Amino acid sequence: MATPAPSAFIELLKPITWFAPMWAFACGVVSSGATPSGQWPVIAAGVILAGPLVCATSQAANDWFDRHVDAINEPNRPIPSGRIPGRWGLYIAAAWTVLSLGVAAVLGPWVLGAALFGLVLAWIYSAPPIRLKRNGWWGNAACGLCYEGLPWFTGAAVMAAAMPDRRVVVIALLYAVGAHGIMTLNDFKSIEGDRALGLRSIPVQMGAGNAALFACLVMALPQTLVVSLLLIWERTGYAAGIAVLLAGQLALMAYFLKAPRERAAWYNGTGTTLYVLGMLVAAFALRPIVQGGL
């Protein structure tokens, strides 16, 4: 039986996609208020869980269940090209699921619970009969939660060895909601293909102009709430920092909205960078709040 080449195996797991959950996990670690001294092996295991394990599992599962579509649209991908032969794509996704759960179990029950929830979302996002990705509202919500909210929760849970502080959870959820808009930006590159294949992405449902405006609002409003909460919690300097980053995003949004289809990828690389920097600012803002139990 043919086996995958190592290069095809790595390509299937898409390392470039790991950054977002690994960054969110790091934000969770920072926001926990815990001192990382002596915890570096646990933190490293958590980073691996967030990116090379759980996120990679979702990529392998998605490519397996999209193999027939990819054979038409992207035939050079590892599975349709035959570089991942037979049912190896499914076997890899299943094996990575088990490995992810094993690592999560070692890190504690809260981490295991978060990982299990994320892996369930990863599979039902792509797998029939549910296949959340068929509708942009549900699919993007699942992605936003898995890429930003759950890893942040996991990072905080790893450090606390317990349920994270409620304010940490609220901020993580707000950034997960905002990530729904980031996922919408990703859908601009495949409007025609999604429409032809019956995938109801947000741009397909709303049209490019309305979808672009919707994505911008969904990214901006949660950040506005984060700024407001930090002001309530008397973290004024950090709130001002996030407000400045948001102002930068708004300026970029104005340019993006003039030609959304042509500039979606550009804004995804510029505005999203400011978005994730704001996540780290918010994480540092939470540290003394959690430490002081305020």
TrEMBL record:
User: What membrane topology does the UniProt entry give?
Assistant: Multi-pass membrane protein
User: What InterPro entries does the record point to?
Assistant: Chl_synth, Prenyltransferase_related, UbiA_prenyltransferase, UbiA_sf
TM region(s), chain numbering: 16-35, 42-61, 92-125, 137-162, 168-188, 209-232, 238-257, 264-286
Q: What is its main location?
A: membrane
State the Pfam families in the record: UbiA
Which domain of life does the UniProt lineage start with?
Bacteria
Protein's cellular compartments: Membrane
Tell me the keywords, alphabetical order: Cell membrane, Chlorophyll biosynthesis, Membrane, Transmembrane, Transmembrane helix
Q: Which PANTHER family match?
A: CHLOROPHYLL SYNTHASE (PTHR42723), CHLOROPHYLL SYNTHASE, CHLOROPLASTIC (PTHR42723:SF1)
What NCBIfam families does the annotation carry?
A: chlor_syn_BchG, PRK07566.1
Q: What is this protein called?
A: 1,4-dihydroxy-2-naphthoate octaprenyltransferase
Q: Which organism is it from?
A: Methylobacterium iners
